[in-house]
Amino acid sequence: MVATNGSGRAPTGAGDRLRSLVFKVEGGKASLSVLDQLLLPAETKYVSVDNVEDAWDAIRSMRIRGAPLIAIVAVLGLAVDLTSNERTIRELSKATDGKAYVYEKMQYLTTSRPTAVNLFNAMEELKGIVERAPPGQVVEAIVTHAHFMLERDVSDNKAMGTHGADDLLSRHVHPDGVRLATICNTGSLATAGWGTALGVARELQRRGKLRSIAALETRPYNQGSRLTAYEIKTEGMNGTLICDSMAASYLKSKGADACVVGADRVCANGDTANKIGTFNLSIVAKEMGVEFFVASPFTTLDVDLESGDKIPIEERPPGELLDTSSAPKDMPCWNPGFDVTPAKYITGIITEKGVLKKSADGTFDVKGFVKKHSS
What pTM was estimated for this model as a whole? Predict the structure, then answer.
């Protein structure tokens, strides 16, 4: 199913082309369509999410991806299931414990992808809302929270972009602005809008201070070449696409002032899980004297995990590597979706609350930062 932008046509404008989802509530019934990112940039197609199973599949299959968007689609998918899926509505009406019924669906959604902590934090936050809601108002509370999540994500991303741009421009004073490099996709397509790491680039571009940006291809699923390059072109940024293995040569010959990447989980010591290849880029940046920043929502900071050794790393199906590499189909392969960048390679962590820098002893006090900024 192709969703429309409200005028009966598929989204066609520059802003619409970077719209990751369409969520509506009409007559008490919610509907959700998500942009199938596996088809970009060749085809722009929105597919319906009619229940939690559809939401789970969209997340697991990577039709949608990006830690913030995964959490949002899970909550919105639940809202759709509870208001528009006749079977769910019927089962909920007959359930002896309606809240327990909802919790089971929430638990199911957390099994879709294990590495991004945003999904788990979103479900914990939603659990608290369900617990506080009167029995007859649980569904209404979830739908209200779904709307809030969408608005908050865009607001937080813009704040993140502002903090990141301010910090970079305080040191890099070339009249044409800052040269960036990034990996994977962390823009509007990975969020409800604006983006995290690419949101920093977008804010620099808005100020006329983005000198250039290099996007790593991001093998094996090519989120950099398919999605980030698409966003760069759509936004009119001065961008260059490079293979992952070109990063060292690019930084040496072309140069960059900073690498800015996203995150799926940041541990208490600053170790950060992100798309596979991020660790490699951080080592290269360190050797070349290039700053290396992680841009992530506050909800990505996981102070319950002391170090990256504890992060569960998702392994993706072999076909995702084999089908994009022209390799023999029966070739054994190892295909982790993420790697962990040790904190020692990270210059700072950009969040909507501000930029966390290292203490005098060269370590990140993520716990202290979270405690300071938690309401």
Answer: 0.93
Burial pattern 339-375, b for ≥16 Cβ within 10 A else e, equals bbbebebbbbbbbbbbbbebeeeeebbbeebbeeeee
Catalytic residue among 81, 156, 264, 302, which?
Answer: 264
**Which amino acid makes up residue 248?**
A
Whole-angstrom distance, CA of residue 146 vs CA of residue 154: 13
Asked if 190 and 18 count as a contact pair (C-beta separation under 8 A), the reply is: no
Strands 272-275 and 21-26: unpaired
Q: How far apart are the first and last CA of the chain?
A: 41
Q: Look at residue 363 and give its three-state secondary structure.
A: coil
**Cα three-residue angle 373-347-251, rounded to 5 degrees:** 145
- Taking the mean position of all CA atoms in its chain, how far away is CA 373? 21
- Is the previous residue joined to 220 through a cis bond, with omega within 30 degrees of 0? yes
Residue 101 has pLDDT above 60, yes or no: yes
Write the pLDDT tens digit of every residue in 44-73. 999 999 999 999 999 999 999 999 999 999
Pair 49, 34: CB distance under 8 Å:
yes
Residue 44 dihedral angles phi and psi, to the nearest 5°: -105, 105
Amino acid code (one letter) for 341: T
Q: Which residue has the tokens 């990577």?
A: 62
Known catalytic residue: 304?
no
Could you tell me if 309 and 341 are in contact, meaning their C-beta atoms sit under 8 angstroms apart? no
Tell me the backbone φ, ψ of residue 325, rounded to 5 degrees: -125, -5
DSSP string, 227-243: IIHHHHHHHT--EEEE-
Residue 110 buriedness (CB in 10 A; 0-12 / 13-18 / 19+): middle
